[in-house]
């Protein structure tokens, strides 16, 4: 469903991702987990796949077998690719509810999201400026509600949804992410440092990204336990990294 082939990404003259080839496909409702130390290229990979302007890309980004490199961001979203920011911007003077209602275009359609709003405990910030004065957990829930309102999404890219939130929000967000994938009949790729969210999602495949390459692929919990015991230093001698 989603893969990159011989993908290289350069940012401000520095090559961050180097000839990366990886099939991220997992069954509908399941997650592919991407681990890796800071600066290894995980967020760069997501942003390049979304088509952000400062990312120079060579190689192929394939969604359902179709190359999407030449598409603008909104066209990639319409094609079925969605992205959850790690640190989304605050928009002072712009109410979440106003933007959301305009996006769905119909009051009746807006009412269809009532259950999503309640499941995310989001009513308290609907009439507030987007992400202004919100807690870390509220910002994450706001992002998830925005994703829920997109149509025809096939692949969700979640950039560290478990960072900067407490345990209560972690459980709520993890459960909702899984429900969202099932509802949309989509798959998810998630970047995590702590791995805490793995307790609350159905992650079936994982990989370690190191120095802009995939160092290993395996079961998410086995990879996480290895990282906790040995750190990422083991990746230095990985044959894939050496290539």
UniProtKB/TrEMBL annotation:
Q: Which UniProt keywords apply?
A: ATP-binding, Nucleotide-binding
- SUPFAM superfamilies registered for this protein in UniProt: P-loop containing nucleoside triphosphate hydrolases
Listed GO MF terms: ATP binding; ATP hydrolysis activity
Look up keyword Endoplasmic reticulum and say if it applies. Answer: no
Top-level taxonomic group: Bacteria
Does the record bear Transferase in its keywords? no
Q: Which PANTHER family match?
A: ABC TRANSPORTER I FAMILY MEMBER 6, CHLOROPLASTIC
InterPro entries listed in its UniProt record: AAA+_ATPase, ABC_transporter-like_ATP-bd, FeS-cluster_ATPase_SufC, P-loop_NTPase
- Pfam families recorded for this chain? ABC_tran
Q: What is this protein called?
A: ATP-binding cassette domain-containing protein
Which PROSITE patterns does the record associate with it?
ABC_TRANSPORTER_2
Q: Report the source organism.
A: Candidatus Dojkabacteria bacterium
Q: Which stretches make up the ABC transporter domain?
A: 2-236
Similarity remark: Belongs to the ABC transporter superfamily. Ycf16 family.
